[in-house]
Amino acid sequence: xxxxxxxxxxxxxxxxxxxxxxxxxxxxxxxxxxxxxxxxxxxxxxxxxxxxxxxxxxxxxxxxxxxxxxxxxxxxxxxxxxxxxxxxxxxxxxxxxxxxxxxxxxxxxxxxxxxxxxxxxxxxxxxxxxxxxxxxxxxxxxxx
Length: 144
Hints:
- The chain is mostly beta strands.
- 12% of the residues lie in helices and 47% in strands.
- It has one helix and eight strands, in the order H-E-E-E-E-E-E-E-E.
- The protein has one helix at 2-19; strands at residues 32-40, 48-56, 62-71, 80-94, 97-104, 113-119, 122-126, 140-143.
- Strands 1-2-3-4-5-6-7-8 form an eight-stranded antiparallel barrel.
- The longest helix is centred in the N-terminal third of the chain and has 18 residues, at 2-19.
- It is globular and about 40 Å long.
């Protein structure tokens, strides 16, 4: 009887252990992050709610990013997209001044995003050639 009870108890413990969900990965406490948010223009909707999170490693060097985009309405309403990968920081000269340039997915030109930091708490999305987007719309994300 004791043996059967031990086997049942052991089986119940294994069953309970199997029902637990895996813990969410914890961020590296030595790493830092910067978060930029805003609504970027959209060709077929009223805007794209955008959150760019740039992570730096314990040596304060660029490590990874997460770019979340949610379409506010229109044909893609409610749809969202999340891109993750690596990023690098370079410098770009604009009108004789040098500014930080953040390049997401630096090794894959077809998947790259470029953001120029001309203000302390904001970045501006650039086109694929690394130039400002010629438009009357706002392509700026603000640090949160």
